[in-house]
């Protein structure tokens, strides 16, 4: 079990998380991230994630995130278009198919709950 902790998110060292080339719509976006907490059963994750400018597709997990820096437009298929920037909180539903247009390198903190 991990004890309670605090960290300064802008200083978290992120590790490369290569994108599947099929996800890249345009540009040369690069993704980095770091899981900072994981439940014992592996179904809950908390972490920091960053993506550089470009356009990518994704199929989402059940996620709540807060943007720390940068800007993006997240188009949810058959749903809303989310404009997110510093200080914004967003919720994505498991299975949402999205297109992320990243205007400025975006860093977020997230809480993900994985399906059964």
Number of strands: 9
Structural class: mainly beta
Number of helix segments? 0
What integer value in Å does the Rg equal?
14 Å
In the predicted model, the low-confidence regions spanning at least 5 consecutive residues are: none
* Inertia-based shape: globular
Mean pLDDT: 95
Amount of beta strand: over 45%
Measured as a percent range, the helix fraction is: under 10%
**Helices and strands, in N-to-C order?**
EEEEEEEEE
Notes on the protein architecture:
The chain is globular, with a radius of gyration of 14 Å. Strands 1, 2, 3, 4, 5, 6, 7, 8 and 9 form a nine-stranded antiparallel sheet that branches. It has no helices and nine strands. The model has no long low-confidence stretch (mean pLDDT 95). It is mostly beta strands and 116 residues long.
Précis, in short:
By secondary structure, the chain is mainly beta. Helix content is 0%, strand content 58%.
Explain the layout of strands and helices:
Elements: E1 15-16, E2 24-26, E3 31-38, E4 44-51, E5 54-59, E6 62-76, E7 81-84, E8 89-92, E9 97-113
Antiparallel strand pairs: 1-3, 2-5, 3-4, 4-9, 5-9, 6-7, 6-8, 6-9
């Amino acid at each position: 079990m991990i004890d309670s902790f605090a960290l300064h998110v802008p200083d978290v060292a992120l590790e490369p998380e290569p994108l599947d080339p099929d996800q890249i719509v345009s540009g040369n976006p690069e993704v980095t991230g770091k899981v900072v907490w994981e439940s014992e059963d592996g179904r809950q994750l908390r972490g920091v994630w960053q993506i550089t400018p470009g356009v990518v597709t994704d199929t989402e997990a059940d996620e709540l995130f807060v943007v720390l820096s940068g800007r993006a437009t997240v188009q949810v298929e058959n749903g809303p278009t989310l404009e997110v920037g510093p200080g914004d909180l967003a919720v994505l539903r498991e299975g949402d198919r999205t297109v992320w247009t990243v205007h400025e390198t975006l860093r977020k903190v997230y809480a993900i709950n994985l399906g059964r």
